[in-house]
Design a protein that fits this description.
By secondary structure, the protein is an alpha/beta fold. The protein has 24 helices and 21 strands. The protein has three domains: 251 residues, Rossmann fold (3-Layer(aba) Sandwich); 106 residues, Aspartate Aminotransferase, domain 1 (Alpha-Beta Complex), CATH 3.90.1150; 231 residues, Aspartate Aminotransferase, domain 2. α3 links the parallel β2 and β3. α5 runs parallel beside α6. It is elongated.
Length: 661
Amino acid sequence: MTLKRIKRRTRRLIAQSWIHLRRFQRKVAERPYVVQTGCHSDGTTSSDLSGKVVLVTGSTRGIGRAVAAGFAQQGARVVIHGTSEPTVSKTVAEIEAKGGSAVGISVDLRSTDGPEKLLRKAVAAASGVDIVINNAGITGPLGAQPWTATAAAADETFTVNLIAPYRLAAAAIAWFKQCGRPGRIINVSTGATETIAPGMALYGITKSGLEASTRFLAGDLEGDAITVTTLRLGSVHTEMTKQAFSWDKAELLPPAETVVPDFIDIATAPHRLVHGRAISSWRRHVAPEAERIVAGPLATAPSFRYPILLRKGEPIDRENPSYDLFDRGESQFDPSPRVFDAVRSELETRPISRYPDEHSDRLKEGLASALDVPTDWLAIGPGSFELIDRLVRLLVDAGGNVISNHPGWFGFGMTCKKHGVQICKVPFVIGSATNRSHHNLDGVLAAISSHTRLIYLISPSNPEGIPLCEDEFLQFLAFIPPHLPVIVDEAYIEFADDPDRLDTTKIIGRTDRTVIGLRTFSKFFGLAAMRVGYAIARPPMADIIERAGVVFSVGSIAATAAIAALEDVGHRANLKDTITTERERIARAVVELGLDSVRSQAPFMLVESPCEPAACFEAFAAEGTFLAPRTFYKDAYILYPVGRPEQNAANLSILSKLVWI
């Protein structure tokens, strides 16, 4: 097919998509909006919009026009506002032609007295106002840095997006109070306030200011029956978004009518559910009740569940000892015998009715002795997973940016999503005979921007099992900004025997950079059920991490088990020797089978799948062995476990059969 024909076909497909989209938009525009009456989550009943007067600024086009039409369909009397009298009159006529009630007012909100004048005229024309929707807004200069914008352009953006809405809100509140009547103000904001949008600084600044005005006005209205709310909108198809997006992206945006139910919901929701809040339109569509309660990224963050393991189509019993479960990276070795003795003694001598040590001092002392670090370098938590969550909350604000490797550990990505944090993933480099596998620290350096708040690395890495090298890491630290924290998740450090590997306990005191090591008792020590983890950092960072936690987060039985595991040096040495020997045996066997693999320092390794991955997982499951049902690097590798000797022998037998099928 010639290039000319390809271009012609592409244009035809785009045109067809555009036609279908327009048909969909017309259907949505013609669809009546239904307010969900009945009880809200707090038991109160939705308000009736019939006869309510709704003033919508900037309502002759785009979102404002759709919102005004939507409220009119619900029986409200709408006040149409714009700067052009003919356009205002036309919009009023269109609403009335569909059976709605509307009046029109033409006022320039950029003038000093424009907002107050608009309110006075609206009250006079409609015999009062019940709901004010501050919708009018402009993008301001697009694609330019704010310091290059002209003073006139900056002033106009601040006036239209922030000053005028504040003045109209203040005038409306004064009128509501004077008349002794309840009222609602809805300030229209944007998802750009939750992230960084390059080239839209003035727009983001003014909308962030508008959200702040919602919070502070709400604070001064405590006890009043006046409700002020921010509604954050995502991008929809309007003339305004056509300026900010390329034409093809703008055409594929949903129509403005899709956000009308969000306005109606906020206008009718109980006061205490929305007052002073910033409600996200896109999250509300997915989880309306959660967004009302949380009003943040957590509203749509999924509750985590591991995939259910199946055998012959039926869920397995994870407690069945005949199954070998490798899907969660749990240790296949029993903890030290001293752990069981210590736990029994703890249960016999310490009343369960008493709270544990709130500072975990005994555990810190044991760790300090084993690691040869000061106790004030340590912060304790219920597993390193919780400490990661704590650190993301502490160090990164919503919309901030963090850098990690790709593909990386799923738990970190899940944590960032929960807190509305953006992740920049730098590809991990899988090596060859002439190029060793590595963390691509040069790529991490190149990805650092002024918005980067945190770097998260895993050593040995997950899923590759490659440790960071100490010398390379120290060189890397020399080039990062001094204020930028670097987390090194060392969940598998005890399994590594590479003499050049990074050990954060050895370098934290040698650098002026903020390095935080994370470790756990869940993996090597086999105490996953106890949930004990710890962070290593210099003061005051360790103290800040500690203070951000919850008191009594680690129970006394768990702390006792961890101390006993640390103290059994002989068990630790034997376990490490066994793991190292078995890992080497598996690596050699994989080579003999003609399969590619990545040499690992963890209790797992990436091994080339000998057949289609789903068939590979099924073959292992048929023998009662369950691998993590994930593939990596273009589906070429599976995560192959290093377990007990008898497990490894059985797994290699299954693998060899698959090779020869």
